[in-house]
């Protein structure tokens, strides 16, 4: 009997020890993932999940992609799922749109969105308008993705931001991620969407590492299209931006915080549909608005945001005129010193904040 009690006690102690270990177990640490690898993960997971998904574009297969976004995918999925195309954007974009009409879910990579102008008829007239013109009977589940906006030292024909261009067109969804989690979660949502999605990446962000949460490492992780994210809380001024400009806004906010100015930084993540509610809610708290973008000022993303705020309930909460920080209204110069003065810098954001707050 004593030996039985001893056995039961030892078993109870063992169970207690296991429970204590489980209770006190340190949660898995977030890992550092580059935007490049996050995009690769998203495509890999969706290619594996849905056999209708395939990738096509210039050098996406055997060369692993011009920016190595598709690294390893051709070896894993083969020629039928990862397809190298000739240098003809109108041709392979048209093939992709036709494939989407036939029930597949293509990912169409442009080596740069500047080259998507070669395929503008396919993107707008064929992809964007068909779902509507078919009264909803013909979905177009296609993603057009690739680097957008200014890189470094590539001059005017490789530096244009198309966020405003494509956001102007009904029928398209336009996504512009910043972080690795943005890139992965939004690309997976874009691939699963029945609408054509223009997915605007940034070449200078590809190699930037971000902390990726345990949740984001899951194959089920998605970010809904159309929802902005507050990257930094603040109560003096609202900074609204997308893509690489979010980094500059956060850097500017860190500098201004040392002077007692707290900026609320909003990462738009999606340009169309635009999360105006998130911006309005922030303005009602901070009473000031500054938009920051790398694109040109005329008819730009910031212009649309300011127009929405002017027409909406948040206008009455502004204590000063809303301000835009944008690229300069010229084709991008090649010389580095001119290039630096053609796109927003941290000092430009700080200057605009202080001017808006009159400090």
From TrEMBL:
Cofactor dependence: thiamine diphosphate
Catalysed reaction equations from the record: N(6)-[(R)-lipoyl]-L-lysyl-[protein] + pyruvate + H(+) = N(6)-[(R)-S(8)-acetyldihydrolipoyl]-L-lysyl-[protein] + CO2
Keywords: Carbohydrate metabolism, Glucose metabolism, Metal-binding, Mitochondrion, Oxidoreductase, Potassium, Pyruvate, Thiamine pyrophosphate, Transit peptide
Transketolase-like pyrimidine-binding domain boundaries: 33-208
Name of the protein in its database record: Pyruvate dehydrogenase E1 component subunit beta
InterPro entries documented for this protein: PDHB_mito-type, THDP-binding, Transketo_C/PFOR_II, Transketolase-like_Pyr-bd, Transketolase_C
GO cellular component annotations of the record: mitochondrion; pyruvate dehydrogenase complex
Signal peptide positions on this chain: none
Enzyme Commission number(s) from the entry: 1.2.4.1
Subcellular location: Mitochondrion
Primary location: mitochondrion
Species this chain originates from: Sinocyclocheilus grahami (Dianchi golden-line fish)
Oligomer status and interactors: Heterotetramer of two PDHA1 and two PDHB subunits. The heterotetramer interacts with DLAT, and is part of the multimeric pyruvate dehydrogenase complex that contains multiple copies of pyruvate dehydrogenase (E1), dihydrolipoamide acetyltransferase (DLAT, E2) and lipoamide dehydrogenase (DLD, E3). These subunits are bound to an inner core composed of about 48 DLAT and 12 PDHX molecules. Interacts with DLAT.
Gene that produces this protein: pdhb
UniProt-listed Pfam families: Transket_pyr (PF02779), Transketolase_C (PF02780)
Keyword Oxidoreductase part of the UniProt annotation: yes
One term of GO molecular function: metal ion binding
Role of this protein: The pyruvate dehydrogenase complex catalyzes the overall conversion of pyruvate to acetyl-CoA and CO(2), and thereby links the glycolytic pathway to the tricarboxylic cycle. The pyruvate dehydrogenase complex catalyzes the overall conversion of pyruvate to acetyl-CoA and CO2.
Domain of life: Eukaryota
One GO term (biological process): pyruvate decarboxylation to acetyl-CoA
Class of this enzyme: oxidoreductase
């Amino acid at each position: 009997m004593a030996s039985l009690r001893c056995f039961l006690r030892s078993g109870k102690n063992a169970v207690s020890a296991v429970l204590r270990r489980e209770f006190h177990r340190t949660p898995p640490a977030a890992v550092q993932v580059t935007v490049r690898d996050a995009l690769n993960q998203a495509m890999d997971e969706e290619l594996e999940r849905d056999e209708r998904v395939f990738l096509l574009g210039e050098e996406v297969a055997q060369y692993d992609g011009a920016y190595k976004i598709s690294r390893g995918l051709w070896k894993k999925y083969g020629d039928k799922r990862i397809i190298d195309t000739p240098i003809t954007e109108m041709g392979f974009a048209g093939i992709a749109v036709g494939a989407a009409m036939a029930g597949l879910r293509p990912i169409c990579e442009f080596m740069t969105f500047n080259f998507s102008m070669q395929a503008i008829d396919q993107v707008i007239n064929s992809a964007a308008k068909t779902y509507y013109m078919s009264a909803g009977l013909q979905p177009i589940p296609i993603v057009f993705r690739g680097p957008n906006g200014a890189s470094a030292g590539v001059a005017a024909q490789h530096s244009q931001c198309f966020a405003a261009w494509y956001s102007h067109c009904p029928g398209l969804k336009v996504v512009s991620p910043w972080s690795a989690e943005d890139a992965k979660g939004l690309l997976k949502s874009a691939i699963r969407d029945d609408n054509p999605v223009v997915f605007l990446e940034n070449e200078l962000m590809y190699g930037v590492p971000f902390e990726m949460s345990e949740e984001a490492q899951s194959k089920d992780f998605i970010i809904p299209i159309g929802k902005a994210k507050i990257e930094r809380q603040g109560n003096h001024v609202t900074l609204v931006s997308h893509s690489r400009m979010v980094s500059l806004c956060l850097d500017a906010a860190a500098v201004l915080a040392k002077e007692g100015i707290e900026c609320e930084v909003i990462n738009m993540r999606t340009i169309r549909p635009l999360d105006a509610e998130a911006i309005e809610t922030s303005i009602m708290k901070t009473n000031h608005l500054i938009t920051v973008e790398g694109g040109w000022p005329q008819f730009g993303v910031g212009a649309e945001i300011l127009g929405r705020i002017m027409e909406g309930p948040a206008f009455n909460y502004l204590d000063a005129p809303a301000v835009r920080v944008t690229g300069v209204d010229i084709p991008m110069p090649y010389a580095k010193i001119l290039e630096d003065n053609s796109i927003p810098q941290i000092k430009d954001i700080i200057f605009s904040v202080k001017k808006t707050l009159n400090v």
